[in-house]
Amino acid sequence: MSTNKHIAILGAGNLGEAIAKGFAGNFGAGNITLTRRHLSRLDHLKERGFQTTSDNKEAVSKATYIFLCVQPKQLEDVVKGIEPVLDAKKHILVSTITGVSLDVIQSYLKDEFAIIRAMPNTAAAISESMTCVCGNELAGDHLSKVEEMFKSLGETLIIEERLMKAATVLAASGIAFFLRYIRAATQGGIELGFEAEEAQKIAMQTARGAASLLVEGSAHPEREIDKVTTPMGCTIAGLNEMEHQGLSSALIKGIVASFEKINRITE
């Protein structure tokens, strides 16, 4: 997909950079402007053809899609700062800010805007994100257009806004959860005799293969597990020990704990 619509990413931290890198292949780095207070931290992106500035209004004035990637506490000041150059007929606001509702964003604006919330994860930088999106009533057809934009970064899903906090935990925080598993598997491999780099390579590719079996085959995880386990075998012995130690329970409790935390942060 290509577009001549310019994109402004306000607050190009880790997630903003990941989105920019993912979009660059389809939209062109030159059509993307990134902003950050400390502009020198974007020099490596400027060298790759992205436009950079510390002036949010400058970035917004030439863009159609405005991605708000700042911290929640910064949002009100950022929105009110760019409001003089915002045009409800031209601009579509897309927020990646955790826990800030569509109504709250609209409350900072005098005119009513098409506003969309999107929750990608940092795998957007390599076009392997899982991005959930929702929008207000004015979003209309823009919602599907923004979803299409995020498809260039991986998989997407349009959901109800009430599920956005859960999506944040499952997809965005989930990156860290899966990485922790890979790290633990690597450490186990080292204990079994592999060098660290060898153990990590095996763990990474095995994790990729496991996910790909489900993505490509649309199978239930237990069906694939059954193909690996044999009576009195080593795999079932390992699985049973992991369950005795609370693997599944710990994962579920961790996800729920993150969800409870995000609700306390954004109440």
Describe what you observe in this structure:
The chain starts with 6 loop residues before the first strand and ends with a helix. By secondary structure, the protein is an alpha/beta fold. It has 2 domains: 7-159, Rossmann fold; 168-266, ProC C-terminal domain-like (ProC C-terminal domain-like fold, Orthogonal Bundle). 52% of the residues lie in helices and 14% in strands. The chain has 11 helices and 8 strands. The chain has helices spanning 14-27, 43-46, 56-61, 75-82, 102-107, 141-151, 164-191, 196-217, 221-228, 234-244, 247-266; strands spanning 7-10, 32-35, 51-53, 65-68, 92-95, 114-119, 129-135, 154-158. It is elongated and about 70 Å long.
Query: What is the CA-based Rg, rounded?
Result: 21 Å
Would you identify the CATH architecture of the largest domain? Answer: 3-Layer(aba) Sandwich
Fourth-tier CATH superfamily name of the largest domain: NAD(P)-binding Rossmann-like Domain
Measured between the Cα atoms of the first and last residue, the distance is 38 Å
Count of DSSP strands = 8
Q: State the secondary-structure class.
A: alpha/beta
